[in-house]
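User: Could you walk me through two proteins back to back? I'd like the raw sequence and the structure tokens for each, with a short line separating them so I can tell where one ends and the next begins.

Assistant: Of course. Protein one, sequence then structure:
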Amino acid sequence: MDSVEEFEAALKPIIVAAGRDAIAQCWMVKVAANRPPWTPSGIELSAGDRISVFSAGRASIVREPNVWVGSHFSLWMRIGAEGNIFRAPGHSHTFTVGAGGQLYLSSLFPGDWADRHGTLATNPRAYERVAGTLAVLVVRWRIDPRAGLDQLARDGTTGAAIVRAEADRLKNPVTTPAGWHYLWSIGDGGIFDSGQSAAPEPIIRCRMHDDAAILQRPVHLKFDSAVKLRWSWKIDALPSARSEDAVASHNYLSVAVEFDNGQDLTYLWSAAMSPESSFRCRAVFAAPFRDGTGARPIWSCDRGWNGSEKGSAKNAMYGTTTAGRSEPRLWLSSRYG
């Protein structure tokens, strides 16, 4: 939901019911999208508190109103001034507080993080060209959150539908594949899920809309010309029907190798570009991962399962230096806006 006003109206009955039965307390907090980097909510959380967060709204560029992101991607949270930053895997999130402290809220777009505690890497003046408001409902539960969500989701109102989406997400959790982790600066978008094929063999599913994520895995080996990268993939739908080398259509699904010299080699599935072509990614937030410097070789898109293999000798033709680097990381990355 992008409308802050509709969001507030839909969830007003929940706010009115605060202090009764399931809900111990709840708060509606507004976050100005042009205020970097953190907004103190005034909400003090204690260790063991069971919390659900719901959000709405968008952040946009003043002179480019069609360039915007929703609250599900722009909203970040931190508990305490030195706490670790995190985001919700969608428009809602339920968690148990570890270390207590004040809840801080941030609208990150169009910025980036410098560290895991929420230091801004972007010049704060970049936010002078941002407009918009995020609305955040914070609920402290008196009972188990699953039971509380089910209790509030019983009727057919818009507010109940918002709550029901979080209840359904908790009942059908997405499981991050073993040995993999989300890139901390983009956060856990909840879009990569472990599973099994009909074989059965372990697989990683990617399901997303209007979001972005990078899933990483460290690889400990001597990286030389004998190393091969081999994978099988099945594409049901690509995020873009246009050429992915343009900022406006830079939406893609890829497998990549990141080297410890800051470069990466990303194999990109494309519906429009010629196989074996490549481009240098220099998009900053449009990517929206970071200031990309890696090459993007292009893969054709076919239906059904396909086996693919690339050798490290290909790196030279795409301009990625790997000499002396021995511990690359694998990426699974996806962006759809």
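----
Protein two, same layout:
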Amino acid sequence: MKILRKIDLFQKEINTLRPLEGEILEQIKDYYRVGLTWTSNALEGNSLTESETKVLLEDGLTVGGKPLRDLFEAVDHAKAYDFMFSALQNRCIDEYTVLRMHELFYQNIEPEYAGRYRNMRVIITGSRYPVTEPEKIEEEMGRLFEWIQNERDGYHPVEFAAQLHKRFVFLHPFKDGNGRVARLLMNLALIQDGYLPVIVPPVLRLEYVSLLERAHWDDGDFVAFIAERELESQKEILRLFQIPFEQIPLDGEFQIRKSDYFRENGGVVFPNPNAPTGILMGLPEIEDIISHNQDVVVIVDEAYIDFGGISAFPLLDKYDNLLIIQTVSKSRALAGLRVGYAFGSPQLISYLNDVRNSFNSYTMNRLTQTLGAAAVRDREYFERTNALIIATRERIKRELKQLGFSFQDSKSNFLFVTHPSVKAGVIYESLRAAGIYVRHFSKPERISDYLRIAVGTDQEMDCLLIKLKEILQQHGDLHGNTGECQ
């Protein structure tokens, strides 16, 4: 299974945190305690929100208007979760572990059934398949523990955890709480083998339940689903611990080498046109990158696409893993609004909606939304001003070439230039002294002799050209009249 190889790739990065014990293990335990408790209960219909669960578990404050059972489920699931972390050392999952988990979770709901196999028949709503008869539960659980002991090492740890979840929930040994115990056992198996807990968010409940039902005859998709959730946990921990993702350098001509992306990875992000070079990648090359990475998200940042490029928008119908992001900050000159937008499959957009309130540092009020929408609708003004910028850019390209500057063919609203005779740092300081500001990058070293020149009005660019001629003349690289800035 390809996703298991990807999980192994991420696991190598996480292993740099080894040993996964002590303070780091405590941080991971605390981080997942609320999230796993809330999601696991919410999947079963518990009415507490994540915030209410957090307040209850961390501050001990009860929530008014909520059923008492929902409060017990949250508090006691957290106790079972804590017990799960106490069972890491011996890599054993036995009957005591299972019964103790259920007892801790169910002790205040129906004490007489807590930590005891059921003695009645039950029907699972929405399932076509019967569960184990009560008189056979102890025998079938014994077989499950034998399978754990004898077959565990024959599986990938994530596949084993998914199989354990499936097999346990199909037995349904308790009167209630089987799903929550199944998820705790699954995560116990993962943590014992050094992997991260899996969280199934409520928004994925329908997919989760349907795949579990299908697993009665084909469990491949269910295992893949659990693997996807493990991968998401790995990505989250990498982000939280700030383990760097790989930044792939451009080639000698500042071009993206598409073949650099034809390998295992956790996702691909690149701007088109690129920044600060302004180089545009064609759609065939973009599609080649996407087609080689169909099991991860490919994000194309098109912040500068309106200045002469062709959007990857036509590829959205073909690739569900493509996300295109744009902004009103550049071509619509409204950077102060902090308005961006994304195009992608319904699934990708739903994921963005799920997390945007947690990660979006620029929330939009009603005024911001109104202005952003108006800017997008006003196509006539947008096209007119864009045409002026493009025309000025193309004229400045010709003028700069005559002055000896070299650069790639920019399709953005800036030029990335260098001069063979006068250092970029010298030009930058001279322009700044004259009140003209361009961008100079001292690092990385390979671009330290380049300037990024934003395209302004014709009058502003004429002043820039005049000053550049003066600078070149001062360094003996240009002769004749330079003109005056108006």
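Strands lie at 268-271, 298-301, 322-327, 340-343, 406-407, 414-418, 439-440, 451-454.

Let me know if you want the two compared in more detail.
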